[in-house]
Amino acid sequence: MAPPDLHQVADAFSARIPNLTEQIDHLVRAIPSGKVATYGDLAKLLGDSVASRWVATYLLDPVCRVADLSHRVVRSTGEVGLHYTNSSEKKTQLLQAEDVVVSHGRIDLETYRTELPPIVPSLSKLTAWQRDFECPEEPALSLSSIKTMGGIDVSYGKQQAVSACHLTKSNGQTSIGTHTYTGEARFPYITGYLAFREIALHLNLLANMQAAGTLPDVLLVDGNGRLHPRRMGIATMLGGLTGIPTIGVAKKLICGVIRAPELKVGNWEPIVASKDEPDEILGYAIIPHTKTKHPLYVSRGFGIDDPSMQAIVERCLAEHRLPEPIYWADRESRRAASTL
After folding, report:
1. d(Cα 30, Cα 46) in Å, to the nearest integer?
2. pLDDT, tens digit, for every residue of 251-286?
3. What domains, with CATH codes, occur in the chain?
């Protein structure tokens, strides 16, 4: 099967990414004077309460477009919380000026909570996209056929982001070079939705590498593969879109339970879905070497089995916590993003 045109894949993917900030702006403007909503209320209307932390972060940014109305959004406990001026007192004053009673830093939500207009639940739609995403038939990866490996990561500047892919030879250690792509990260960071923040950047980078004939034979991705609440982390989705075998390498465990009571250096310890589902292995935890106490969480992305995944990652481990291709991609993307 011919590989897809990754420029077309990138354009199609980007076209499906919603503008969450516009939706939040619309909701905040709909809160009438003298009424409030909670960060959780806004997140639930987006389609997932997990987004409440991002909603709060966005509304605490003084440059957000509804900063002058953000005092009308409070915590789920009724606590006023902070204002974009970093002063809860200022937020209290603004609410009291609208005849909202604030007592000991709290508001009676039963009295002052408003009913917000319905909107398209964008996060629910993205969840369904991940849940129903159909990867193409996975090719059988032969370790002996690997000539180049890549590690891919994103770093963020003030306005734009940089996706970097560092290439090595098949030993995972010998550097070939780094390719970068700079663009706008339109989607915010929300736990479980990393794919929608970073894949568009990665796809544009890989499209340029495809045009240059420099795509790697296997790609280590900073993020999760099957080790994901919907079994569709960024590594799996990116591999399914591009057809490149992928491995997810994460620094934080966002789901699952490590089966072993204790981690030992160099041991691949299974991560299962839950204690009640001990046979569903989502990925593995490994402390890469004695120079770090912090494990990596590694999982299959696309087009690879567990033994091959483990063998490839082991090739790439050196003195750094991260596999060398990702370590250098992270370093180069940070360097480039620092100039933006």
Report:
1. 15
2. 999 999 999 889 999 999 999 998 877 788 999 999
3. 19-119 (1.10.10.10), 141-337 (3.30.2170.10)
